[in-house]
Amino acid sequence: VSGSSGTVTLFAIPQNFVIPEVGQSFDLLGGQAGEAIALEDGDGQLLKTPNPGGGSKFFYVKDANTFSDAMTFSMKAGGGGWGASYGMTADASALVQTSALTQSIHFRGVAHTTQSVVSPNAALSADAAKILAQGMDAFTQRYGTHFVAGYIYGKSCNLSFNLNFSTLDVATKFSSSFSESETAAGFGESMQASITNTMNTTQSSCSFSVESSYRGFISVSPQSMTDLAKVVADYDAASGDTGAVLLIIYPWTYLDQVNDASFGLPMSDALQELAALTNKLLYVKQSGQNFIDGGRFAGASQWQAITSAGQSVQKELDGILAYLQSCNAKATAVTQAEVDHFPAAEPLADQMTTALRRFCLAFSVATPDWGIAPDWAKLAAADELAPQSNALQLLDNGHQLSTVYNDHSKGVWFDVSGSHNLCAVPSAGVMMGFTSDPDKGGLVGWCVSGPQAGQVSPSLAIGGSTNSRSLDDPNNTAKLYWPISQAGANLQITLCPV
Length: 498
What we know:
The chain has 498 residues and is an alpha+beta fold. The chain is built from eleven helices and 20 strands.
């Protein structure tokens, strides 16, 4: 918000957070309090005035757009930094786990009654005044451009009931059937029933978890939806007039002693648009990072694809941060022309979605009866994404098998979920393949026809695997050996996510 003495920024204070002192330096863009304090008895120079306001709302957060909407409301109602990954906003948002595989029923509430703000004529400490006499560059190098100017008192509440899905397909299937209007019911029995009914209708499943951060009232530490409903009820009932729930951040130019400088981020429509873009990019980044942190990737190729997508997002976030730092240092407004130079979030989200959906499988078919497996039966990892529509098959050609590649790579990318044909021997009526199970993080081979119809292989753990990129590497122990007898020959299938 803009004040008569400069641009004012509000930051929500996380639960159990040590509140910084008035006059303490503050990194506006990083959302973190510094160690340096420049005011002489800042708490003794506070002016307390009424400041009623706030708001509350439930959200069903299922994608980058709804994540941005929730963050935008949160920032307008109770302040915040540049998205959920910046500074204290992360701890206060209760949206850190929300990502492509984790949807959230989210509640954000804030109600404030009074505020205390330091007087513009508050005196700098002797040390700070001495540094200021050396020039503004020396002052900002020590104390930054902004400081904690006061507090807003009231109550705040951030709660999320997370639905953790195993794959994007399952998450999409659920969200396409779940009614967003149900979020108006809050964390009650009707919400639980709606989730259960949608699970049954879509034949989907997920695990549940809870995030919370609240201040200004006493309640339980929530572990379930019933607990979340109790926290909301306690929030509604609390008077919320004594606890500090928001930090008031001013540029140092607010003070009479430092009013001959010029820095800060003036508010503008373009700045708000850039904030929305930042939140979408952070959602995409969280989707990849949470996927990797949870060990859901299958093989080094998928890990690399997710990492590359995340690096593309981080590059844009770094560019946005550098631009904001430049605007802050010069006290210039963010312009629409500059915002338009930043790429839209949607293509980067598509890149991440592809990385989360696919993994690369290398496999070989050995024939022990023939002595040494021929070269064509040894496949290694793919270096580039191969079109999934062109499945690799091994075809019977007389008494020899030959490989048919979908491109010049040595492996095939498959969707992370479902069953896939792997090997066909038409003359023997044989079809072999595999099924991946993201819930259990496993892969199983199967045979659907021929003398061994119905036979399945042992399960291979694929979640969190960063295997060697070669089936022949003796250090690569995460391989599935599957011997079967087909058409008078003993075949040995070797599968490995790489």
